[in-house]
Amino acid sequence: MRGAGRRTRRRVAPLFPPLAAAVLFAAAPAIATADEFFPVRDENPLVRAFYLPLPSDSRLTDGMNLAATLSISNTLNVENRPHENLLVDGESDTLTLSFEDGLYQSWRYRITVPVIHDSGGFLDSAIDHWHRWFGFNPGNRPFYPQNELLYSYSGGRRDINITQPQTSIGDISGELGWYPIDDAHRTLSFWSGIEAPTGSVSKLTGDGAWDAAVWAHGALRWPQWQLAAELGAAQPFGDEIFGGAAHRLSVFARLAATRALGSEWSLRAQLDGQSGRVADSDIRFLGPSLALTVGAVRRLGARWRVEFGFAEDAGVNTAPDITFFLGIRRQSSAK
């Protein structure tokens, strides 16, 4: 395997601590109008095929919502264990489309469709410059050519080896939520979802099986702040990627804090974590993950808003090195 002999610990530039503190606590008082979560999730190319629902931060009064989010994830991860070897070097672009609407008095539903493209990408040079400018440890990046694609894993029940650019639709999910509490100051909802095997196992955009998930969402709102949390569990009913090793229950959680800067702008920090997906593996990239997302929301009138920011692996080597995202949402009614 390429680079199997090098085991330098990778550390991506720690962008988030100073930025998160600055944007969340230096803001002037304003009126809270933003939603609670960014519509992002862990885009680890080896485990993205397994169902991990997007956050569910809508209100009953929203009516019909349409959303599109483009995420660009870049990572270089090298791990060698006595019986396992992993090299993930590449960039993935994920366009996530979702439609959500009300269903009866206290219910909402959502349909999500991802489209995924893998390639060598274009961010390697920018990341290298960032490391040099600020004196950060580049990890394994100097030992590998830029803008190349290689997703490789061996030692499990099945091997993975992807070297050519590819595009595929992912697994499509449908979800249903019940809202026992929803008012101007708080929201409590309970969701369940199912994901259909519409993706490609060979391209790592589907796990070849139906998956299911259940989770709870809670939010508290004040004039300048919003706090939200989610806790849930996901269960794949099969696994054709790792030969059954990922056919296991996983737990996921999210926590977000949003600071309003007036009626148009809001700033947010968000933590996303999940338990390990692959059993009997010592590879950190296949184990529990933790990512921190920092970004902003810009409202465009009463119905539209734009969201943008970046996510980093707060747990070293547990998620993609860096993910940039840009999303747009349309609500048929404003909160």
Task: Explain the overall architecture.
The protein has 335 residues and is mostly beta strands. It has a single domain, classed as monomeric porin ompg (Porin). It contains 2 helices and 15 strands. A 12-stranded antiparallel beta barrel has the order 1-2-3-7-8-9-10-11-12-13-14-15. It is globular and about 55 Å long. The N and C termini lie far apart (53 Å). Residues 1-34 have low confidence and may be disordered.
* Low-pLDDT stretches: 1-34
Rg calculated over all Cα atoms: 20 Å
SS-based structural class?
mainly beta
Q: Strands across the major sheet, in which order?
A: 1-2-3-7-8-9-10-11-12-13-14-15
Q: What would you give as the CATH superfamily?
A: monomeric porin ompg
Return the CATH topology: Porin
Mean pLDDT: 88
The global form is: globular
- Give the class-level CATH name: Mainly Beta
Sheet with most strands? 12 strands, antiparallel, barrel
- Tell me the total number of β-strands: 15
In total, the number of domains comes to 1
Can you count the helices?
Answer: 2
Q: Would you kindly provide a brief summary of this structure?
A:
This protein is mainly beta. The protein has helices at residues 16-25, 124-134; strands at 65-81, 84-102, 107-119, 150-154, 160-162, 166-169, 173-182, 186-195, 211-221, 225-236, 250-260, 265-274, 289-300, 304-312, 322-331.
